[in-house]
């Protein structure tokens, strides 16, 4: 997740890449097909959501996955904005963790994604 | 407005203490948020690192504070700095009792560490404990960590618990346990091969979330081993049917589509299972047809499903009705205003033309629009499509476009790719020699350093051999045109090294052939070239060898050689070169200059590149000599294998062999090396004087024996020398192995090129007809564009042959029109729509006038019948609800023979059908022998000219 100035706001990797490789990937965010990766991106106000995928992925579905993530965050934070994600970085991560595991999209039901996180909040 | 909202939020956070977040944290986030440059951000982060270091090192930090510090560490790492000093605190936090802290700890650990990090071992224990927790949220947190941190070695430590959790009462836990197993499978397929059946069982889980997650590992499994999962086709079809019929909970709906992501995954799986399998495909047709019919092309997600359906149809056994529906969907994509949809349309088209190539023709104009679109991604995708549909009838236009595009871009990665594709297409479909040479010139000029060196050798070979026609006149015409174009080009600055090498070689071989250019002109040019690239030893080496060839051709022709002063000084400079390779070449050149015409003719025969060099492996011509030596009392030759190990100890190679067989230490002292028979043939001594019976002889041996080969040719034309194996038969075992000079062209077969030229000149007449048709439909399209379309897509099916000259002519006009149309489009193009869509996607796709799905229905009913027949009891297609379906399936699944699957999963390794496909095709086109020979050729040549310490084999060029 990168904002308009190309500043990173949230990053998760499903295959370990070292810092150098990450930097190279993140700084060239405007590339859509970069080497063997394909970057699907979507812009919400000042925030770009980038998803790097391999060549076999359905790009449009990934685009909608981004939207699903945003909708989910929106439901949780209520009218989500960049600062919500910045102040609650760990929660944004938790949501992503619920949705994506091993690089696969596993959960697409918003209530299933959010219920563990809400339960956890209540518990502590 | 935006700002007001933010300020309000900040105020709210400030008043609540930011949900337990300190002022410091808020300030940090705010300052990071306000930075305007990377440098500013770096400064803040560096300051933060210092703060955190001191804070973390102080004892008695309260827990909630620690959590905040960890999140601040996450920021440090995320913004590209090293936060390793705090890793241990993340590890510690995973031990915490508090769930939120624990999960944050796990999160930090998964983000900081990779699975091979040393600290992981500290976490495995915690994970084990947490997996047994009563609180399912703790178990979930641990399972998340398992998915990120457990490596091959630690799998056994958690595997039993993970397997147990597959039956946990909470669906979230089951789901995550499935994914943990999936992770183990990804990391070490062998570790879970006995547990594969669990995936089948979980596919029948009552919870759709678990079922959806199970599709991920099953997809991977099916990818590696399709055949073991054919029995699941029915189950997948049933699930997909139920999903499409909205049997899943409403919460899975996304933009009014029922669980679209599950549908897409299922379609992916089905296309794997149905690929190349008629029976399986027949079971799938109905549901795919249904989904296409129901699809909603007004939303992104609907189009995503539609696209997946097209992909599925293109991989299934071809079904005319479905193909028609897919083609229809593609045309909707291509006509859309959205770049995303057009991109997908092009991609889908390139998939579909594999099974029905004629589809491309319907969309030719849309494709050309995409090609000329300013959007780079779309353009590249379209080039990919064109690459896939290149035929001999359209190769000129396509390659021309590719080269122009290649010149216009800077990204070296993509440049290389396009260049190699140009070369590939040119080699495969070249309509004429001239065109091929010109194309290659362009590619080399602009991307010579990026393409494989093999390509350069290929080009040299092609010029040497011609296109395989017997007509010598054509070949020499090709060569002279190459020489001419090179003489023009070679003066340009910044030519890539590989291209210069080709130029030198061609000028050396053919520069003076035909008598158009004088030797002094060519040699002058070569000298200029060598001087202009004085830092490139390879080019200089090629240049000096070329000089040598030209001089010896002159000598052989009986003409007097006068060496230009600049050549003389070049040679002198090289005689003193630091590169031994250059030095030796220069000395050889000098030696040749001193020989008479007869000898030179034998050493440097004119135009001999294509002549096969026969090699006498048995060295029969030496028999007399050996016999004589034996009579004089020399020891008979003892084959390698019969010699004792002690004797061989001097030989590196043999010693290695020996070591590998005995692996024992030697305690005896080394033997004094015995002098052996000189390997030198008498006649060679006049070229290079070799002291007999010395170590030097061994080192020089390869070179001298090669010269002796050519000069012994002089003596008897029938006897040819086979050089590999020389070392082993004669002479004391060597310190360095001479590389076997199976140089270059002895395996090259000329007739292979015939295929290149075979299908040239397919008539464009049909293309014209097609374009007229489309003109009738859409009058406003400029004729230039149509011509381009015609040249791209024209007449695939017609295979009338024409002379290549005619296709040459048409190509010229096509090129011309292509340029024109480019201009025309530029002016008429509306401003490019942005790739990313900010608002709700809206596509202006109009419904087709005739509903193809109506026509489809008849067929679908038929196939439905067959499905239910073939599936029998399992195919309870009318299962009333989801759970009952799963119950059905679990029955069938359990009765399966798992053992066989397990073993087959074990044995399968890797995927990669599609990548090999291409190379296989290539091999078919070119013939395996030729390819191999070329590779060898390239390798040998490279070895020959690279100044490595190991016996630079200098006469390689001559032999080759």
From TrEMBL, chain A:
Keywords, alphabetical: Membrane, Protein transport, Transport
Keyword Glycosyltransferase: no
InterPro entries: AP_complex_ssu (IPR016635), AP_mu_sigma_su (IPR022775), Longin-like_dom_sf (IPR011012)
Compartments it resides in: Endomembrane system
Record domain AP complex mu/sigma subunit: where: 2-123
Chief location category: membrane
Keyword presence, Kinase: no
Family in the record: Belongs to the adaptor complexes small subunit family.
Protein name: AP complex subunit sigma
Source species of the chain: Penstemon davidsonii
From TrEMBL, chain B:
A Pfam match: Adaptin_N
InterPro entries: Adaptor_Complx_Large_Subunit (IPR050840), AP4_complex_esu (IPR017109), ARM-like (IPR011989), ARM-type_fold (IPR016024), Clathrin/coatomer_adapt-like_N (IPR002553)
Chain ranges of the Clathrin/coatomer adaptor adaptin-like N-terminal domain: 52-593
Location relative to the cell: Endomembrane system
Keywords: Golgi apparatus, Membrane, Protein transport, Transport
Segments of skewed composition (Polar residues): 734-746, 915-926
Region (Disordered) residue spans: 726-746, 792-850, 902-927
Low complexity compositional bias, start-end: 805-814
Role summary: Subunit of novel type of clathrin- or non-clathrin-associated protein coat involved in targeting proteins from the trans-Golgi network (TGN) to the endosomal-lysosomal system.
Sequence similarity: Belongs to the adaptor complexes large subunit family.
Oligomeric form and interacting partners: Adaptor protein complex 4 (AP-4) is a heterotetramer composed of two large adaptins, a medium adaptin and a small adaptin.
Protein name: AP-4 complex subunit epsilon
Biological source species: Penstemon davidsonii
């Amino acid at each position: 997740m990168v904002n308009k100035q190309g500043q990173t706001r949230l990053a998760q990797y499903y295959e370990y890449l070292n810092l150098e490789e990450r930097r190279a990937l993140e700084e060239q965010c405007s590339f859509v097909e970069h080497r063997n990766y394909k970057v699907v991106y979507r812009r919400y106000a000042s925030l770009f959501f980038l998803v790097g995928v391999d060549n076999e992925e359905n790009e449009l579905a990934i685009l909608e996955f981004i939207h699903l993530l945003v909708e989910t965050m929106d439901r949780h934070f209520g009218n989500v904005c960049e600062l919500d994600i910045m102040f609650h970085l760990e929660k944004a991560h938790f949501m992503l963790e619920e949705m994506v595991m091993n690089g696969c999209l596993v959960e697409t039901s918003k209530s299933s994604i959010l219920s563990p996180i809400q339960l956890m909040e209540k518990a502590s | 407005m935006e700002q007001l909202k933010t300020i309000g939020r900040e105020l709210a956070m400030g008043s609540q203490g930011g949900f337990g977040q300190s002022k410091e944290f808020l300030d940090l986030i705010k300052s990071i948020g306000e930075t305007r440059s990377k440098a500013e951000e770096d400064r803040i982060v560096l300051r933060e690192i210092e703060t955190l270091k001191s804070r973390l090192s102080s004892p008695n930090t309260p827990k909630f504070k620690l959590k905040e510090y960890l999140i601040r560490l996450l920021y440090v790492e995320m913004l590209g700095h090293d936060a390793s000093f705090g890793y241990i605190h993340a590890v510690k936090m995973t031990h915490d009792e508090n769930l939120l802290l624990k999960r944050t700890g796990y999160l930090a650990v998964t983000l900081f560490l990779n699975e091979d990090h040393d600290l992981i071992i500290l976490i495995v224990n915690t994970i084990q404990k947490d997996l047994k927790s009563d609180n399912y949220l703790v178990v979930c947190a641990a399972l998340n960590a398992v998915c990120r941190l457990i490596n091959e070695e630690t799998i056994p430590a958690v595997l039993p618990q993970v397997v147990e959790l597959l039956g946990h009462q909470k669906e979230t836990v089951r789901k995550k346990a499935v994914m943990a197993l999936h992770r183990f499978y990804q990391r070490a397929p062998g570790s879970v091969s006995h547990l594969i059946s669990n995936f089948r069982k979980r596919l029948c889980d009552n919870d759709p979330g678990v079922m959806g997650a199970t599709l991920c590992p099953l997809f991977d499994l099916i990818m590696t081993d399709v055949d073991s999962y054919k029995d699941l086709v029915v189950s997948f079809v049933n699930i997909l049917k139920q999903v499409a019929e909205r049997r899943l909970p409403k919460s899975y709906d996304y933009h009014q589509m029922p669980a679209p992501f599950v549908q897409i995954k299922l379609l992916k799986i089905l296309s794997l299972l149905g690929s190349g399998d008629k029976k399986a495909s027949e079971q799938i047709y109905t549901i795919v047809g249904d989904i296409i019919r129901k699809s909603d092309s007004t939303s992104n997600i609907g189009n995503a499903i539609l696209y997946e359906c097209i992909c599925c149809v293109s991989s299934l056994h071809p079904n005319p009705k479905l193909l028609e529906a897919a083609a229809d969907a593609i045309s909707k994509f291509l006509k859309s205003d959205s770049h995303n949809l057009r991109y997908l349309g092009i991609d889908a088209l390139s998939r579909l033309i594999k099974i029905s190539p004629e589809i491309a023709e319907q969309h030719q104009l849309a494709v050309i629009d995409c090609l000329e679109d300013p959007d780079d991604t779309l353009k590249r995708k379209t080039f990919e499509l064109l690459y896939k549909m290149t035929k001999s009838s359209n190769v000129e236009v396509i390659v021309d476009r590719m080269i122009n595009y290649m010149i216009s871009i800077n990204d070296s990665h993509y440049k290389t790719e396009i260049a190699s594709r140009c070369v590939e297409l040119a080699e495969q479909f070249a309509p004429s020699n001239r065109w091929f040479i010109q194309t290659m010139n362009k590619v080399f000029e602009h991307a010579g350093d990026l393409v494989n060196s093999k390509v350069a050798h290929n080009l040299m070979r092609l010029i040497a051999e011609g296109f395989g026609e017997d007509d010598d006149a054509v070949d020499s015409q090709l060569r002279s045109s190459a020489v001419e174009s090179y003489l023009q080009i070679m003066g340009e600055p910044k030519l890539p090294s590989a291209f210069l090498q080709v130029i030198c070689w061609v000028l050396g071989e053919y520069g003076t052939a035909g008598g158009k250019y004088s030797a002094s002109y060519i040699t002058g040019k070569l000298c200029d070239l060598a001087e202009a690239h004085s830092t490139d030893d390879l080019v200089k080496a090629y240049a000096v060898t070329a000089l040598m060839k030209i001089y010896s051709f002159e000598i052989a022709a009986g003409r007097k050689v006068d060496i230009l002063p600049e050549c003389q000084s070049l040679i002198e400079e090289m005689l003193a070169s630091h590169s031994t390779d250059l030095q030796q070449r220069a000395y050889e050149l000098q030696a040749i200059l001193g020989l008479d015409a007869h000898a030179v003719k034998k050493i440097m025969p004119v135009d001999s590149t294509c002549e096969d060099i026969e090699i006498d492996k048995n060295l029969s011509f030496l028999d007399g000599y050996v016999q004589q030596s034996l009579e004089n009392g020399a020891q008979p030759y003892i084959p390698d294998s019969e010699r004792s190990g002690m004797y061989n100890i001097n030989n590196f190679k043999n010693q290695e062999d020996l070591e590998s067989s005995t692996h024992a230490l030697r305690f005896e002292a080394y033997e004094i090396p015995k002098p052996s028979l000189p390997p030198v043939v008498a006649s060679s001594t006049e070229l290079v004087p070799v002291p007999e019976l010395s170590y030097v002889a061994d080192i020089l041996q390869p070179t001298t024996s090669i010269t002796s080969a050519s000069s012994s040719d002089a003596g008897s034309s029938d006897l040819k020398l086979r050089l590999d194996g020389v070392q082993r038969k004669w002479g004391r075992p060597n310190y360095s192995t001479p590389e076997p000079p199976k140089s270059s062209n002895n395996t090259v077969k000329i007739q292979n090129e015939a295929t290149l030229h075979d299908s040239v000149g397919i008539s464009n007449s049909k293309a014209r007809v097609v374009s007229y048709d489309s003109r009738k439909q859409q009058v406003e399209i400029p004729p230039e564009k149509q011509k381009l379309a015609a040249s791209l897509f024209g007449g695939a099916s017609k295979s009338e042959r024409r002379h290549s000259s005619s296709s040459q002519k048409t190509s010229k006009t096509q090129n011309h029109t292509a340029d024109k149309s480019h201009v025309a489009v530029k002016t008429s193009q509306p401003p490019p729509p942005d790739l990313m869509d900010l608002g709700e996607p809206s596509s202006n796709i109009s419904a087709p006038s005739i509903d193809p799905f109506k026509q489809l229905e008849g067929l679908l009913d038929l196939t439905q019948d067959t499905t239910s027949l073939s599936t029998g009891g399992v195919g309870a297609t009318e299962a009333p609800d989801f759970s009952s379906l799963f119950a059905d399936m679990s029955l069938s699944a359990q009765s399966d023979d798992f053992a066989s699957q397990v073993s087959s999963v074990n044995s399968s390794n890797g995927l990669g059908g599609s990548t090999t496909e291409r190379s296989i095709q290539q091999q078919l086109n070119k013939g395996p022998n030729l390819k191999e020979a070329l590779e060898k050729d390239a390798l040998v040549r490279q070895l020959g000219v690279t100044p490595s310490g190991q016996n630079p084999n200098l006469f390689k060029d001559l032999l080759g």
